[in-house]
Amino acid sequence: MVVCGDNSLAQRLVRELASVYGQRVTVVLPSLRGGDQGPQIAALVGDPRLAVRAVEAQVPDDAALREAGIEHAAALALTSGDDQLNIHTALRARRINPELRLVIRMFNRTLGRYLEDLLDRTIAARVPGLDQRSVDASTTVLSDADTAAPSLVAAAVVGAGKVIQADGLLLRAKERTIGTAGRRDPLCTLALLPDAPDSDEGDVYTDPEDRDGPVLLPDPQEMEGLSDDRGTVVLEAITRRSDQPGAPLPRVPRLPVGSFFSRRLRASLLGLIAVAVLLAATNWYVTRETPLHSAYVTLLNVMSINDPELDGSTWEQVLQLLGALAGTALLPLLFAVVLESYGTFRQAAALPPPPRGIEKHVVLLGLGKVGTRVLDQLLELGIPVVCIERDDEARGIAVARARRVPTLIADVTEDGVLEEAGIARSRALLALTSDSGTNLEAVLYARQVHPGLRVVMRLFDDEFAATVYRTLRDTYPGAQTRSRSVSALAAPAFAGAMMGRQVLGAIPVGRRVLVFAAVTVAGNRLLEGRTVGEASRPGCWRILALDTSPPERRRADLASLSPDGITYTLTGDLVWRLHDGYVMTAGDRVVVAATRDGLGALLAGEEPRGAGADPSGTDGPGAGSPAPAP
């Protein structure tokens, strides 16, 4: 694996690839002694537990890429914040190695889609006859805001930071006892926890010889008879309740037409109309013209655009004067109509304030790039939201106005702003501004008002985030706290894309790791023609779901975001909770949870080390013996 960049995302990505997936990684960066994350990456290079090396180059040109071994690399990640530099480097790398898997960080999502199509087309152009479905030389363009948003939403809604995404469904790993695991209808049991659970705040270095850690993917038969108090880690779906519809999407603000005119203005308009009607009737009586002619002449008189009645009768002259007198009230009245209508329209189109008595809502601080994406997903889940933003021209203000989300345009550090947002009755606070100090100040004040509040804050410095987390956890042990940088949350998605489109993500369990992947059944001797029960290997891998979509319509990447957002429902092309007797055929694709070594063995079609023989009984002695936990 090759990673270009010296920012926080690059550092996190290198750590994820090397420690979680056990990959050999080469980093291309300007310097290991300076820059944004040079010293931190140097520490990874010097860690004997990790296979990380570095190539120092000011620009990732052809020479630097070749020195990093791009000709034989499996994947390249471009993490710079400069879209143009990433595009240039991607074109260089694709020219050198047409079958290279590319993962590109880009802020312009429209340009990113065009770039994906362009770079994928170059594969077919340079390698004629190559079937892209059989070779995973894909191009994936990701935004760190899009990839971090699901974890932030999950942390705020259910307090879970360990989430993956599959076919539009958000899945979380949750610690529960055996006695309480069935209350939320889990999809499966991922692990049995030891008596002294590991901390999930440290670095993840998997150790196959660690017998004191959790038992991954246990055999269901082994769990029978265990105490109901034994801790487990189960896989649950984060879904919207059936009685909780998503937020509506009005295209234009709803305007209260009935309140365009005040009561006094309506009375004045009616009075002027009554005078005009009376004058028209009198004119018709005096002149004996048709009613239409009399009304027309009266309107001309009221608007003072008629000729003087020098040759008319006295009554006609009097009526003209009375009409002109009534017309003097028309101009200010019309002016008042315009002003009042404009004011009503402004009020209807403005951001609504938080409703009185609102409760069980999420207070979202910051409507920038990350906050906007989080707001979209919270509304998709049907969760009430109150937003706070200092800049009235921020990216997410238009979204909040279009979807009628209560929003305060204010500085959260000012007195009374959080109280006005109903922080005392809220379920969670998401502090996602680009200022770490503002986020921390808001969280500390909110904790004083509501000590049990669940908080998720965005902090840019990883060490600072860890220190704040531990301090708040010790100070408020009864409340849930999450402090993460966007790069830390986005790194797993970038790493999964580098591992290939079949990898959906990884979830740490203590200091061990489970990888979730989509595997094609065709040609795999461990899957094709086997039942789900026969194909699963306790301690190594377990089959979780079946992709029921036809092969020609299957999404290449089940973990990708749909262009129009995400719908968190248990509907789609994946069927969960498969029966152990289901026989898998060559046209099937399944989702598995596996250890790192187990996934490698499964993709290679080989029995895992120490797993015993084929459970079908065709591979000699030891058939059917369960695989021990690695």
Structural account:
By secondary structure, the chain is α/β, with parallel strands linked by helices. Among the domains are: 2-142, NAD(P)-binding Rossmann-like Domain (Rossmann fold); 257-342, Helix Hairpins; 499-604, Regulator of K+ conductance, C-terminal domain (Alpha-Beta Plaits, 2-Layer Sandwich), CATH 3.30.70. It contains 19 helices and 22 strands. It has a six-stranded parallel β-sheet, sandwiched between helices. It is elongated. Residues 196-210, 240-257, 561-571 and 612-630 have low confidence and may be disordered.
What topology emerges from the helices and strands here?
Layout: E1 2-4, H1 8-20, E2 25-29, H2 38-45, E3 52-56, H3 62-67, E4 75-78, H4 83-96, E5 101-105, H5 109-126, E6 139-142, H6 144-157, E7 163-166, E8 169-177, E9 188-192, E10 215-216, H7 220-223, E11 231-238, H8 263-287, H9 291-302, H10 314-327, H11 330-349, E12 362-365, H12 369-380, E13 385-389, H13 397-402, E14 407-409, H14 417-420, E15 428-431, H15 436-449, E16 454-458, H16 462-475, E17 481-484, H17 486-499, E18 503-509, E19 512-520, H18 532-535, E20 541-547, E21 574-576, E22 589-594, H19 596-604
Parallel strand pairs: 1-2, 1-4, 2-3, 4-5, 5-6, 12-13, 12-15, 13-14, 15-16, 16-17
Antiparallel strand pairs: 7-8, 8-11, 9-10, 9-11, 18-19, 19-22, 20-21, 20-22
Q: How is this structure best summarized?
A:
Residues 359-477 form the RCK N-terminal domain. Helix 12 links the parallel strand 12 (362-365) and strand 13. It is built from 19 helices and 22 strands.
